[in-house]
Amino acid sequence: MGAVWALIIGNFVAILITVVGTFGAYQFRPRYLIMYLIWSFAWIACNVAVMLTYLEISIFKQGGTILTINTESASWWKNNGIGCTVEYESSSQTGSTSSAIIAKVTGCILEYKYVEVIHAGIQCFFSLLGIIIGSWLTHRLYNPKAIDQSANSASYRSTNFHLQNV
Q: Considering the chain, what is the average pLDDT of its residues?
């Protein structure tokens, strides 16, 4: 499946928590939104760690077992990237490419590690967007005065508009 088993599981959990956070916003339950916000911060930290690992910045180095959960697999994008040509060892070519040993991958438009970094960056962007919206909603739900003030000002405007047109 790839080098990012932990992130595949994380994506599944992120989808579940996003559904719960959306339900919390719809049902006016700020605790569900707070759970979503906490998860989003953790998810951003995880994706930043993935980006640092693929770019091999600081103490983060590729080849560890954290991203693979000890499965010793490689990123799917390593062999299936955009424009990549895969060359197999001639002795292992038996018609089936699933068990063949890959000798060399050439011609990739974008190296696999940059595809993984872009993917993690997009997830960070959406999580940050969710944090901004979730924080605003949580503030609105925990501060009933803000909701009352906006409702009162809206009713005042509509009443004022109605009185002006009479």
A: 76
